[in-house]
Specification:
alpha+beta; about 35% helix; about 20% strand; globular
Amino acid sequence: GINAEYGGSTSIPGMPGAFFPDSLILTQSFPPPKEIVTSLINNGYEFIGAGPLDTEDIWFINLGIVKPGTVMHGKCHKIHVTLDSERGPGRLLMEFRDKCNTDKEVFESYKKSKIEAAKHLDDSNPAAYKKAKGGNAVLKELGQKYQINHGSGEPSKK
């Protein structure tokens, strides 16, 4: 079976960031079943590689889901496909989202990390931005808790 969750900064009210919603598809096996990958591709999503937190967090992006003339035109939707287990990137992302939504100190710490990391966007370096915001102390702690298999800091099609 699979489970779906809403994730990313847009799932944390008041968190700054680009309005690019993230969704999580949590699978019982990794790599994910062929049917999930085929369905995403058939619905306009492009595989962009393993995410920066873990090699078992693969990303698909759809740049064409938003109709012209809407507030979201030109934006995208990213889907993380990851293992639904007691360890791993899916659980880390959900727990971190929940901590940001319930603990003001964690929220403010991540907000500060994102604002500092955004300086990399001035250099047109989104990979450096992702890596810098991932250096947040709470994210690092959760990475150890969930035995994250750290990626390179940028999506990789390995």
